[in-house]
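USER: Note each token:
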Amino acid sequence: MSALELRYRRLLACYPADHRAEHGEEMLDVLLSAARPGQTRPSPADAADLLLGAVRIRLRRATGDATGSPWPGALAVAGFVSMMMLVADGVRFAVNVPQTGMLAGERMDLGATLWGVLPMYFGTAPFWLAWAVIAVLAWRGARRHAATAACTVTVAQIVLAICAANFGEAPYAFVASSVAGIPLPLALLATASLVASPGPRHGARLLGRVRVAGVAVTASVLVALSSQPLFTLLLPQGDLGIPNLMEDPDRAYSFAQTWGRLQLAAALVIAVLACAALSRSAHGRRTCALLAMAGLPLLMRVGVFHIGAYGDIPVLTHLLVECLAGFAVTMLCVRLVELPLKSRAPGQPGKA
């Protein structure tokens, strides 16, 4: 065995064993036939190509369904749902723009400047617009561009959240912190799906048309229940003018409590329906566990479990604990559900 062949075989050892058994000798023959007379080492270009090829194959297997692992499919579905929720939150922001504009106008009438009002009331607009663009790129198949944009936006979101948590008295800190609550775990799931799974588009295919329609309906319900226009329209004797609501704060507060209970009930119903729809498959059950990382913080904020005043700057450690707790508890339930299934697996004795 020549020195060149030995070095090529060392590089080919980076490939999976089954791939080497099927294609290794053929690849080696091609590489040796293209070698120059007297060559003893692989060229830098050939070495880089071989190593990159090995990395691509291993990543493809790690993020595809060829290994039989349910996690890649679960992450793809969770990424699709998370991206839909982020887009829905952007729609909620757009629906609230007329009333937000009224509030901004009131502030300007009291002497505030335009450049002082815009960041306060519309400072998160670039965030929602960015996720809408990312969703379009992902749906059109431009996954690399979508992943790059998602990583950039998510890193910026994390930096803003950390700054807001540590410098709460800074100007507009609450604006930066507004993307550090439920949107943060959703953004992390969507970004992870683009980077480390077949992607949200694949997740939509796994869900199927009926379940994708269900996700769209769910997103629409959440948009409606978190929109200011619907709140003020359903408020007894209410109208779209938020300043007018302050003339009767008791009525507004009483209805706000009822509205919060309605939001909690809707969130619980959606969680139950999602678990029922996804619990029939291994990747679906793990999707529930991943989505619980955003679901539990949502329930904590709309339910009676909320601690502190609404509008407080979120504490990132609390959010992290809630995300991990949601994932851990749901995965514990998944393991308990799957234990009887494993005992009845082929080749193992099961109960009659």
In short: Confidence is low (pLDDT under 50) at residues 305-313, 347-352. The radius of gyration is 26 Å. DSSP finds 16 helices and no strands in the chain.
